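User: Can you fold this complex?
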Amino acid sequence: MKRLFIYLLLLCSCSSRAQDAASVTEQIIEDMYEQYTAESDEAIDYDSFYEDLKECSLNPINLNKTTPEELKRLPFLSDSQVENILAYVYRFGSMQTIYELQLIEGLDLTDIRRMLPFVFVGEGDFTNKKIYLHDILRYGKNELYFRLDKGLETKEGYQFLPEEDVKSEQSNAGNYLGNELYNSLKYRFHYKDRILAGITVEKDAGEQFWGKVHKGYDFYSFHVQLKDAGKFKTIVLGDFRANFGQGLVLHSEFGIKKSSYVLNVTSRNSGLKKYSSAGESNFFRGGGATIQLGKFDLSAFYSNKMIDGDTVNGTFATIIKTGYHRTIDELSKKQTVNQQIMGGNATYTNMNMQIGVTCVHTLLSCNLLPERSIYNYFYFSGNRQTTGGVFYRLRWKKLNLFGETAITGNGAMATLNGFYFNPISSVNLVVLHRYYSPDYDTFYASSFSVSSRVNNEKGLYLGVEVRPFRKWKFAGYVDSYYFPWPKYGIDAPSVGKDYLFQSDFNAKRNITMFWRFRFEEKQTNFTVSDSVLSNIVPIQKTSLRYGLSYSYGYFNFKNILEGNLSRQSGAEWTYGFIVSQDVSYAFQDTPLKIDFRYQFFDAVSYDNRFYSYEKDVLNAYSIPMYYGLGSRYYLNVKFEFNTHLSFWFKIAQTVYADNRESLSSGNETISGNRKTDIRLLVKWKF
Amino acid sequence: MKKIKYLLSFILFCQSLQSQISTIIPSSNAIALTSVADSYNWTSFNNPAMLGYVVLLEFALQFENRYLLSELSTKSIQFAFPSNLVNAGISFSHFGYSLYNEMLIGLGLARNFSDRFAMGVQFNYYTAFFSSSNSYRGALFPQIGLSVHLSSDFSIGFNTFNPFQTNIKTEYVIKVIPSIFSLGTEYFFSKELVWRTQFDKEVSSNYRFAMGIEYQMLQSIIVKTGAYGSSYLVPCLGVGFKTGAFILDLNCEMHPLLGLNTLAAIKYRFRK
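Assistant: Here's the predicted assembly.
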């Protein structure tokens, strides 16, 4: 009976996929992104996140012929779930039907529903089929995206004093050179998953498009990625990314952060990959290739690009990664330093083991000399750096061990080691230990850490996921860490801890809810006027979040209630509160979808601030920060004129009710208490 | 003139102390003002989604007297016109007396979607007399409501009044129109016993938490009790009578500082 019920549910999912596969996929991607970012102060690169999964839905993974690398593209699957899928196919042979997924240990209905758009069960393996030009021309798909953003309130940076005014020369010099429009244009081509190519051009708000100082777009990017081309597993040209091992040496993708996916703490997306985002940093420009020789994958790449920095006498203090070139001052720092990077990786993989070596060498045209302060005493300085590392994965019975150890040219070491343990199908556990020495500092590392930089940290993380009953899932983690050297804003070695507990309840097919509790304690400076010693005190923050999602027919509703308490040692507790109502409606006869949200927030102090994901136009993301007292609402509309042409529009407004007379600061200052943004995106498929 | 000053000061004093969010919005006849998830009763300027559940043409009159002072009373009238496509409602509320008064007029539209959920929107026009300019000034703003039955016994309601924080600005003063976010639940223990909770936040006021229980003792009599807390905890009692097409509600609240607040409402439902 239970099995029949599951079959029926899966059938319903399949039929809904047939009805509107693209919408279902987009919804799943949005939900995953929201869950990933819910507990993170930093937004991960949505462009890459979306495009990776979208490509995966257009070229689904054949579960009978798949590899760990392919399955790890699905971020909602934990490493042990990936291992279990592969082990099932290995033990019982090819799956005959997608419904066999329910027989795999550790996969529940939510996971299976999420997997459906991205996987299929098939016979043949045509990945090495020769590519013919006429097939490319005939079956290749082209897409064009045109996006415009604008803030409705005029910011300080766009307000010029008339030339007659004596202060005009000084006042206007720091203003923005361009208009208030953000604009990007993207062209994408794909032939199955074998050939991916694209061009991206972008201009941020305030950047000059055509004027005396600058002509054309501010950022240009192109990429080509070939998969299984002759002897090459992957070839990338133009802008690309490289990720190997646990990211201690190279991981130019979004970082691995703590989230309510408590088991997802290891690096994904290994290998060379195109870069298609509009972000202006964290990518390589040049070319690379991976060749497969039996069980060995050998990769090599070379990058040569200009980066932003404030150069003075052949040195610069910091690499500027904002990508903004709106004022004379910002333009003067644009592309002033040449950065060459060359690297390689060799990985050996078999059924129960993976081991690899990565090496990267960076060469700068100017010396990087950070302005020395106590917190950045160990930051890299110089114009060349070599980093190397060894990583491994071992599977032994129900234990999966993983880790990486890396070392820089100055002898500084970083190491991360851990294991997944799956004692019974309903219990999953992960333990991760990391040690990053204070003087370990390399350019493109991104691994599991509390702060964005992979250095000066050691800690132990323990995550558990339990599914004791059919409709319930419990997850939690504990993370305890220590910064052995001062950090920015903490003038002494400090400690911190972080707990999360979440329970998910699928009451019915159309009603789901969760409760999430989080406690965090870290240390910060405490200024005492007559003390010469650094004083640090703990800051504690406790939050509780309840989310409820329900749907009826073509309506979807969602409520979020969250409260938090925060205090610095010895001070009073301050509180924050946020509550929202979402309504989405997909019209039955018209290709129109509308999302509306009304949200109220009351966060007394900055420490009580909230981040909340909101729906946006395609290929864009928005996780505004809420601090103060006010409300925010938005309307997001998607309309498909026909199978070729689609249109998105969003208008969002935040209104503050705490008597503030202006918002933001500097050139971004808006007078008044309202901030309104509009976004427009047009997509043309041909 | 002294009387006007005294009354205006008292109105402001009361508004600062009382736990009710606004005097111009008529209190609902759901006990402890827990109307946001009250699926079987539409009260003007409360959750407009509830208008969607109205099946018979109805009209209602309501009088609320605060602290035994006629000058602090709110009078309201409402009409609901159900139809197959969408239900419409007209409401009017008046607070104050001849020398100081505020008025609110609303036109609401709502629809019930297969008894699973209802959505409603109401367009309200607020107007008040400003002595500084010796004239009436007004502002138009929306109100949005939603009610969802998650099961046959349990439902939740959402309402936002003046979500865009529209205010009236004159040369000398800014009249703040309340901007309210409300969320509530309704649970039927049995057909006779219902339990409601509500959370309200007016953007510039304290949070308000309310809870109420209504029990149908006899076919024609309902007794109600509850309480709400904001700056003060306010206990509430009420009774409802049904006779034919008429429904009569009498509610009272005891504010610990300001005293008794009473409400009387009569509703007539036309037969098909």
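Residues 155 and 668 of chain A are 5 Å apart (CA to CA). Residues 2-37 of chain A form the longest helix (36 residues).
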